[in-house]
Amino acid sequence: MAWRGIFKIFSTIASGKNNLPEEKMDFEEETGDRVLNDEVELGDEEGEEGHRQTFAGAIPGKMVQCLKTDQVRGPFEPPRLVLEPPLRTANPLKLMGTAIPLVQIGGVDKVLALPLPHLPFFPGFHRPVQVKDPKLLAALQESYARHAPYVGAFLVKDEPGTDPSLVSGSKAEKNIYDLKGKELLNRLYEVGIHAKILGIRGDRVVLVALGRIRIMEMVDKEPLTVKVGHLKDKPYNKDDDVIKATSFEVKSTLSDVLNTRSYLKRTCTKCIDNSEFPRLADLGAVISGAKNLQCQQVLEELDVYKRLKLTLELLKKSMEISKIPELVLETDSKTTLSAKFRERLEGNRDQIPLHVLQVINEELSKLQQFGASSIEFNETHNYLDWLTALPWGIYSDENFDVFWAKKILDEDNYGLADVKERILEFIAVGKHRGTTQGRILCFSGPPGVGKMSIGRSIARALNRKFYSISVGGLTNIAEIKGHFRINVSSTPGKMVQCLKTVGTANPLVLIDGVDKLGRQHARDLTSAVLDLLDPEQNAKFVDNYFFFPIDLSKVLFVCTADVVDNIPKDFLYRMELISIAGYVTDEKMHIARDYLEKSTREACGIKPEEVEVTDAALLCLIEKYCHEAGVQNLQKHIEKIYHKIALQLGRQGVSYEPAIADKPGEALVRCAGELSKKDVTDFKTIQESEAIGTIEKVVVDISNLADFVGDPVFNAERIYDQTPVGVAMGLAWTAMGGSTLYIKATQIEQGEGKGALTLPGQLGDVMKGSAQLAHIVARSMLFKKEPDNRYFANSKLYLHVPLRATPMDEPSAGCTMITSLLSLAMKKLVKKDLAITGEFTLLGKILPIGWVKEKTIAARRNGVKTIIFPSANKRDFDELATNVKEGLDVHFVDDYNQIFDIAFGDDQETGK
Ligand code: ADP
C-alpha cells in the first residue's frame, strides 16, 4: 500500500542518524498499556481526523496517536522501549565495533550514571530517555562526540516509605533531579544496564541496552560517575527439561497476554520464537507491564531458570488483571475522575463564579449516579471536563512598558516603523487607561506581510497568551457560539476552546480574515463574531454549550484582513485600521536573512556553520522566484532550501547504527529497508569521511540555487523589458497587494471610417467607461500632435486590459490606456521602464489615485525606473519611507500633455 511505503520513508527520515528498524515495540507506562509504533494506515475519515472526546470509545486522530507513540516529539516523558526483532543476545563487543574496546565482559568500567525514573531497561532494547540534568546532558554529549558513547542506566528507587506496590515512576522522578553525588547514588538500584548512546536530540538521548552491570563505587559526584562491573548470566543447560518446560510456559502465557494486545502481537510473536531463554525472560517482563520493582527483580536475576520463573509470575498476574470485572474498575474510575476534577479546581476555587461552582458540584454528584458506560456518564464527564479546565479568574499580568514592547516588536519583525509606532501609541494609551480593552486594532494588507506575526508580537509585548481564530473557514454559527448540549458530540465554540487552550482569561485573540466574513452569506455568523468583539456584549458571552454567561471582557481582540473593502461595515466602525503595504527588495533581504532564514535553520536543527546561503542567492530568490508583496512565498522557498540542505547534511553525517546486528552492512540494509546497495556504499564512504572530519559546509549560491528550488518562475508582472508599440505599463492594486499591469492596444480592422474601440467582454462598467473616455482623449491628443494622422478614424481597435490585475478600488488606468492607444497610432515606443497611473476626466484634469505605497512597492519590485502619479498624490508619495522611494524618478502631473512629453519624449524610438 502506497501509504505504508510513504510512512516507511518518513520513519526512516524521522529516525535520522540513528535509524531504527521498521518493526519496533513501544512501551507506554503512562497508560499502563503498550502501543505498537507501527505503520500508519489511513482508515475512515473520522478516524484520521480524530474523534471528538465525546463518548467512551472516542480517540484522537492518527496524528495525535502518532505523537503519543513517537514520544521523542511528544511533550511527555517517554518510557519507551524499542525492541529489535529478531531478538538475540546482544554481543557488546560486536555492537561497539572493534575500534573502541571499552567494555570487558565480566570486567570493570567507569561510566556516567543515568537515572531512569521509569521502568528499568533490558539488554537488546532501544529507548529514548529525557535527561533533565544539564550537567549530565553536557557530559553525555561530550562522550558521544568523543566516540565513547557509553553510559550506565539505573532505575531510580522510590522515595523511602513509598508503598512498593504503588510504585508510579513519577514519584521517583519528582525529586531525583535535585539529588547529587552520594545522595543520588543511594537512590539508584545497584544493578542496571550498560548502554550505548545512539544519538542525542535536544535533551533526548536514544540508548541501546548492551548488558547488565552492577555499581561498584562512586568515582565522580557531578555528574555522577560510577565504577561498574559487567554481569554475566549464570551458565545453564539449554536441554534441561525443567528450563525447557518453564520457557514453554512463558511463551504460551506471553502469547495469551499478546492476544489481549493485538497491536503488539505481530512484532512480538516473531521475537518470542527467536529468543533464547534469558532474552525470553527479559521480553516477558517488559510485556507483562509489571511495576518497576518487579521488573528490576527480573533484571537483577542472573540465574536463567529463576528469571524465567519470575517472568512467568508477572505474566500470569498480567493475565489475571486483564480479567478483573469491569464493575470494580468502574467505581474506581469514577472516584478517580471526581478527584481529578476537584484537583483541577484547587488553587482558584475562590475565583470561580458562584453559579459555575454550583453547576460543577451538581454535575459531580450526577457523575456518581450514572453507569460508567452510559451516555449520560460520558456527557457529564465531558461537561465537567470543560467546566473544570477553563481558567476561571486566572489572568496574566499585563505589561504596558513601551520600551519593552518596542524591543519585542523589533525582535520579531523587521521594518514596519509606522505600524510599530501605532502599536506603541495603542499600548501607551492602554497604560493611561489601565486597560487595552475596548479598542480593536485591525491589520490589513496582502498575505505574508506579517499581520499575524505582528499580532503575536503584541501579545508577547503585553504578556498575554496568544490564540488565533481564522474566521474565513467558519461556516456555522455554532463554531463561535458552541453547540447546545443535546448529545455527547456537542462541544463549546472557538472562544471557550481558546480559553481552555491558553489557560488564562485575558489572552490576545487574533480574528484572522474578518474580510472573509462578508463574503459568506452567513449573517448570523458575522453577528456572532461581532458580539464577541463588542465590549458591551462580550462580558456576558453565552456559549450554547454552557448556557451561562462567560466573561470575555478581559480578552484583547485584534483582527486581520486582506482587503479592507470587504470587511463588513458593522466591524469597520469599531476598528482602528492599520495597513501594511508590503516590502521592497532590500527589506525582503533583511527579513529573509535575519528572520526567515534564522527561524527555518533553527527549525531544521542546522547549525549556522554548516551552511551558507549567499546574498546573491537570496536576491535571486526574491527577484526571480517570489514576485509578491509579502514574504510568504519567500518563506516557503527558504524552507525548501533548508529541507534540502538538511538532507545533504544528513547524508554527509549519516550513521546507521549496527544496533544488534552482527555486521554493520547487514544492519543498514535491515534498518533502512528500501535503501539500495549504492546507499550502503555511500554510507561507508560517508562514515569514512566523517571519521577523518571532512563534513562539508553546504553553500547555496546563484549557480546552484536551481538545484534547491527549481528554475525561476515566469513573472507575469514584468512581461517586457521594453514595451512594444501599443503597450503601456500601469499600476494597479489587488487583494495580493500592488501590481504592475500592461495595457495593450491592437488594430483589428482598417478601413475608411471604421474607427471604433472594442473591449474585453468581462470588463466592469467603470473600466469600460474609462476606456471609452481614453479613446476619445487619445483621438483629440493625436489630432493636436499629428493633425494628419487619421489612424483612429480608420481603425477598429481592441484594447486589452488584463482582468487579473483589474483595479479593485477605483479606475486608475485611464492615462495608461490613452498612452497605449497613442503609441499604436503614432507607432512610437513608450519610454522604457515607465509606469503611468492616474485617471483622466472629461474636464481635462487627472484625478488622484489610491494605494500609492502599494503601487510604488510593486513598481520597484518590477524594475520600474520612472513613475507618473497625479499631482494630487504628491503628499502621499512624500510620506513614504526613503527606502521605498529610493532610485525612482517620479513625476507628478496635472494634465495629459505632461504625460505625453515624458512617455514620448524626443529621444523615444519610433516603432515604425
Ligand atoms: P500574514 O498574516 O500577513 O499573512 P504572517 O504574519 O503569517 O503574514 O507572515 C508570514 C511569515 O513572514 C511569518 O513567518 C512572519 O514571521 C514573516 N514576516 C512577515 N513580515 C515580517 C517582518 N517584517 N519581519 C520578519 N518576519 C516577517
From TrEMBL:
A single cellular component GO annotation: mitochondrial matrix
Compartment annotation: Mitochondrion matrix
GO BP annotation list: chaperone-mediated protein complex assembly; mitochondrion organization; protein quality control for misfolded or incompletely synthesized proteins
Signal peptide bounds: none
Residues of the Lon N-terminal domain: 111-319
Reaction catalysed by this enzyme: Hydrolysis of proteins in presence of ATP
Record EC number: 3.4.21.53
Pfam families referenced in this protein's UniProt entry, alphabetically: AAA (PF00004), Lon_C (PF05362), Lon_lid (PF22667), LON_substr_bdg (PF02190)
Domain Lon proteolytic as annotated: residue spans: 722-906
SUPFAM superfamilies, alphabetized: P-loop containing nucleoside triphosphate hydrolases, PUA domain-like, Ribosomal protein S5 domain 2-like
UniProt-annotated catalytic positions: S812, K855
GO terms assigned for molecular function: ATP binding; ATP hydrolysis activity; ATP-dependent peptidase activity; serine-type endopeptidase activity; single-stranded DNA binding
Sorted UniProt keywords: ATP-binding, DNA-binding, Hydrolase, Mitochondrion, Nucleotide-binding, Protease, Serine protease
Top-level division of the source organism's lineage: Eukaryota
Family of this protein: Belongs to the peptidase S16 family.
Protein name stated in the entry: endopeptidase La
